[in-house]
Amino acid sequence: MSDDCIFCQILQGEAPCYHVHETRYTRTFLDIFPAAPGHCLIVTKDHYQDIFAATPESIAMVGHVSTLIAHAVKQELQCEGVGIFQLNGAAAGQTVFHYHMHVIPRNSGEDLAIHSRVPGDTGELEAMAARLHARAMSMRTED
Ligand code: 5GP
Ligand code: ZN
Q1: pLDDT bucket at 3, cuts 50 / 70 / 90
Q2: What is d(CA 125, CA 136) in angstroms, rounded to the nearest whole number?
Q3: Rounded mean pLDDT of 80-107?
Q4: Helix, strand and coil percent figures for the chain, each rounded to 5
Q5: Which of 9, 58, 114, 143 is most exposed, with the fewest beta carbons within 10 Å of its own?
């Protein structure tokens, strides 16, 4: 837990989020500046700055959940592809220093940017989170 970390604040319930999925080790919620509708972030429940600080177990769990979220996103949104990636260090473009994975629906012809500066519409984010949550819940996963 890091006091000045926005993802820790979300995990503590001190800041809102558009919830999609939860395990003992991870939370998944929508990126509020979506690179595409349905852009999800999978975050570790413990605060690790980046891949160099995170434990192998937490990294593996984020990877495991990213597979589930990729399937949920693809099935629910019927996108052509799904981008899964994460950034480590400011030099790599990381902007929130709490280990996380991006899962972004992709369709041909669309901009492949990782970050957007445009906030998503709150009503659309809410509806999207509900759809992806329901889809993820309908899929088999492990603890
Ligand atoms: P990074 O650049 O560190 O890989 O990704 C951080 C992501 O967090 C960005 O895509 C950014 O849009 C997103 N983000 C920043 N602040 C918030 C927030 O308060 N809530 C949510 N849900 N996402 C955020
Ligand atoms: Zn944190």
Answers
A1: confident
A2: 16
A3: 98
A4: 35, 20, 50
A5: 143
Note the CATH architecture for domain 6-138.
2-Layer Sandwich (3.30)
* Strand order across the beta sheet in which 40-44 lies: 19-22, 26-30, 40-44, 100-106, 81-85
> How big is the CA angle at 86 (ends 135 and 79), to the nearest 5 degrees?
40
pLDDT at res. 143: 45
From the CA of 120, the nearest ligand is 1
| Atom 12 in ligand 1: residue holding the nearest Cα | 33
Tokens in use for 62?
């984020």
CA 8, CA 78: separation in Å to the nearest integer? 31
Whether 100 is catalytic: yes
Distance of CA 54 from the midpoint of ligand 2 (Å): 11
Contact 84, 36 (CB under 8 A): no
Crossing angle for the helix pair 56-77 and 122-137, to the nearest 10 degrees: 100
Mean pLDDT of 87-105: 98
Domain ranges of the chain: 6-138
pTM: 0.97
- Condensed to tens digits (0 to 9), the pLDDT of residues 40-49 reads 999 999 999 9
